[in-house]
Design a protein that fits this description.
The protein is of the alpha+beta class. It is 30% helix and 24% strand. The protein folds into 2 domains: 111 residues, Carboxypeptidase-like, regulatory domain (Immunoglobulin-like, Sandwich); 141 residues, no CATH class.
């Protein structure tokens, strides 16, 4: 009697499998894997022991009050999380959150994970197994001083050329052609009239003046900023950069060459430069090209 009962059960099972052959196969191949991680650009500045003693507490204050700023081991970092479209798995864009984090379930196999910031591409090849989770860090670290100096290089060369030709400072010309574009005067000829910001160390920004770059008009809530131009190696330059037009454009990856503007011809007052240069951060975020506060 028991034998017949077992035979009956076996026959029922065989019939079920025969009617739904994928049920058992699904149990064998339903396993997935997970690829997760974080991507972005970290703009960093290292300080000496002496500098750390002088203003380390001020950098800690910035860290406490500004999101995505970290001060650790005598190094301050400004992190720009990746945005949608910059992280790809096997060539397909992956959704990232506001922190640059991504998480994707995939079938086991080989994958190429990439983060491209407009300058360089971080690539990692993985071979993931069923049920495995691989966590990746795709963060490109760039030096703040080199980043700023690469932007200023062309500007400094141009200032030297102007100085040798006697064209520095305030220019006036009766042959200037201009056209209005909202609040911005687009300058078509050289030389031009108007207030020229020389960008000397310690020079305070003047509203309405022509500047090379609005990178020191920061407006980060809760921290003390003075809208003054400083050497790229100083704590003050980093402080005034936070919340500036340049910083805001980088948050949105608005400048194609994030982290390597080199050299950024920026907001110089020559129309041919403005037209051909893709790295005008103020224009990228809808602001005027003249110096302004927020």
């Amino acid at each position: 009697m028991k034998v017949r009962k077992y035979l009956f059960l076996i026959m029922v099972l065989l019939l079920l499998v025969a009617n739904n052959p994928f049920q058992v196969l699904a149990a064998e191949s339903s396993g997935t894997a997970t690829v997760s991680g974080v991507a972005g650009v970290s703009l960093t500045q290292k300080f000496t022991d002496e500098e750390n003693k002088e203003f380390g507490d001020k950098l800690e204050d910035i860290e406490n009050k500004v999101e995505n700023v970290e001060y650790k081991n005598k190094k301050v970092s400004r992190f720009y999380p990746a945005i949608d479209g910059l992280v790809k798995i096997n060539g397909e864009p992956v959704t990232v959150n506001d922190h640059g984090e991504f998480n994707l379930d995939v079938e086991p196999g080989k994958y190429i994970v990439e983060f491209e910031d407009g300058v360089s591409c971080i690539t990692k090849k993985i071979n993931i197994k069923e049920g495995e989770t691989i966590d990746l860090e795709l963060i490109k670290e760039r030096n703040f001083k080199k980043f700023i100096d690469s932007m200023d290089k062309n500007h400094k060369n141009k200032k030297m050329e102007e100085s040798s030709n006697g064209n520095m400072g305030h220019h006036d010309s009766n042959n200037v052609n201009t056209e209005q574009n909202d609040e911005v005067t687009i300058l078509l000829n050289d030389p031009i009239s108007g207030d020229h910001q020389i960008d000397e160390i310690g020079e305070k920004g003047r509203t309405g003046a022509f500047v090379h770059c609005n990178r020191f008009n920061g407006d980060a809530p809760g921290i003390s900023q003075d809208e003054t131009y400083y050497s790229s190696s100083t704590y003050q330059a980093f402080r005034n950069f936070i919340g500036s037009d340049c910083d805001k454009a980088m948050v949105d990856y608005g400048c194609v060459s994030i982290g390597d503007m080199g050299p950024c011809q920026g907001l110089h007052h020559y129309q041919d430069w403005i037209n051909t240069n893709i790295q005008n951060c103020s224009l990228e975020i809808g602001h005027g090209i003249l110096y302004h506060s927020h």
